[in-house]
Amino acid sequence: MRLAVLNIVGLSKSLIGENCPGIRSFAEKHGVQSYTPAFPALTTTGQSSIITGSKPEQHGIVANGWYDRENAEVRFWKQSNHIVQGEKIWDTLRGQLRETMPEFTCAKLFWWYNMYSSADYTITPRPLYPADGSKFFDIHTQPMMMRDELKANLGPFPFPAFWGPAAGIASSEWIASSAKWVEEKHQPTLSLTYLPHLDYCLQKDGPDSPLVADQVRAIDHVVTDLIDYYESRGIRVMLLSEYGISAVHQPIHLNRLFRQKGWLSIKNELGRETLDCGGCKAFAIADHQIAHIYINDKAITREVRDLLEKTVGIDEIRLQNHPRSGDFIAIAKPDAWFTYYYWIDDQVAPDFARTIDIHRKPGYDPCELFVDPEIKFPKAKIAKFLVKKKLGIRGLLDVIPLDATLVKGSHGRDIVPDEEKPVFIGSSEKVEHAEDIHSAILKHFSP
Description:
The protein is an alpha/beta fold. The chain folds into two domains: 3-246 and 412-444, Alkaline Phosphatase, subunit A; 250-407, no CATH class. It has twelve helices and 20 strands. The strands form six sheets. An eight-stranded mixed beta sheet has the order 2-20-9-1-8-5-6-7, sandwiched between helices. Strands 14-15-17-16 form a four-stranded antiparallel beta sheet, with helices on one face. Helix 6 (169-186) packs parallel to helix 8 (212-232).
């Protein structure tokens, strides 16, 4: 029997109730398990642990981004599947089923590290960046010819609904439609589909917000429709999530503390401050509730650790044995999270700080989900930018706030209450850790 795995980001037992009758019914029928997430409990780390059946120390995805020591550059949200070390589940299955199911194929839809994968059919968001500095929303597919066919049949991928202040259900709806499209065209043996919707409201408004109920109902409708669609074609369905979301109230600005100690190297670029990581004695790469601490001057290692241990909001310091990892990993308390901020005066913050720029920032920035409430007429400002863009005039869509207290939800910790743990639904195989899901999927295809 073929298998479809739906990754419903942010789903936990606490959300499986009256607002998601379809998912609740599926869970009552097939059983629901909560499991300890990968550490760190982050998108790319969790997905890579599931895909390879190994821990970050083996597959190398230590966070959504890290400091590349050799190139002295921060690399966030890269897309090549070659970055993930170890054998992928579709390659394992292709080898195991060579004799009994030589026609095996895998579709990997919007899971991360999806470019140049050995999976048969892939779709991933990928903007176009012409030489004039402009940016156009688009997707990347394998096979490449699928890209034009998809857009012709489904319309353009609604990129603003995938990330940013306009993030919403439209992106998950399009992804679900693309999953049906791939099924109808190619009938993959294993389909992996990523549905990001809950991530937005849970980080923006917090898991306790009354606004979450409508968003849960919205993703439940998408998921239930997909379950019905796959089951009508005789395809088994499994549901999973990578992490749950914790309510947070306390941002921690580690790089500002490091700056006060004289450990940062700051470069003035046209009146704006940028972080010169290669010249820093020590700095933090923040990613939700964890921060990798990289130390270039080993003489201050003990001093750095002492500061971390005394910093309000930090719960624990860990080590992670992989070259991409920092010298320390700081873990926030349950109600805290880490910013990447390093400037003291907002007037000299880098120009990208107030924009949606997931690659240039030396850390993850959930404030990209908001429009700055200090802007009096934000719609007019955005409209003006779009008109200038249409006319070929370059400019910044600088509408993102620098107020980290706006963020109400985060993740990254692996020690969380049961009701905040990620879930796995649709298999009788016991799952205690993220890597166990890999085994459960393999078991489905065992004779």
